[in-house]
Design a protein that fits this description.
- 64% of the residues lie in helices and 0% in strands.
- It has 5 helices and no strands.
- Helix 2 packs antiparallel against helix 3, helix 2 packs antiparallel against helix 5 and helix 4 packs antiparallel against helix 5.
């Protein structure tokens, strides 16, 4: 019987950490917002509600997710103001559309990259090193292998 217990790896304390499942769901809701925008506000609401009950290392993920949402909202507000300003100053019609395309693409890359970094750290049972970061939580992001 002790032989069975010694080799039983089915109970991994990190995978059973309070709030880990919530963090996974919120990352999926954020990624789902690429197709259905309504999932991001649901995700941030869940993160806000569950943050205090999570393990400390999982709390870093929930804080990172909350910050991702609110930074995105702030950026969206600034974008709308800039877009309106371009219209008010009489810029050619292509200018707001080009700005919108560039902004939307940059935001999409930023949000998906933040989720990717977060999911990678979460599945490795690691906290987000700097959840208050404007970029990628203190992770070094490269396109190279290794």
């Amino acid at each position: 019987m002790s032989h069975t217990l010694a080799h039983d790896d089915s109970v991994n304390p990190e995978k059973a950490a309070r709030g880990r499942g919530t963090a996974i769901v919120v990352y999926m809701l954020f990624l789902g917002s690429v197709l259905a925008v309504v999932t991001a506000p649901i995700g941030v609401l869940v993160a806000h509600l569950k943050r205090r009950r999570a393990e400390p290392w999982v709390q870093s993920h929930l804080q990172f997710q909350i910050r991702t949402f609110w930074l995105g909202m702030l950026g969206g507000g600034l974008f709308v103001a800039a877009w309106q300003l371009l219209g008010l100053v009489g810029a050619p019609a292509v200018a707001p559309w080009a700005l919108g395309y560039i902004y939307f693409t940059a935001c999409l890359i930023w949000m998906v990259a933040r989720c990717g970094v977060g999911i990678s750290r979460l599945t490795s049972n690691q906290p987000v090193a700097n959840p208050r970061s404007l970029a990628f939580g203190g992770a070094r992001v490269t396109l190279a292998d290794g």
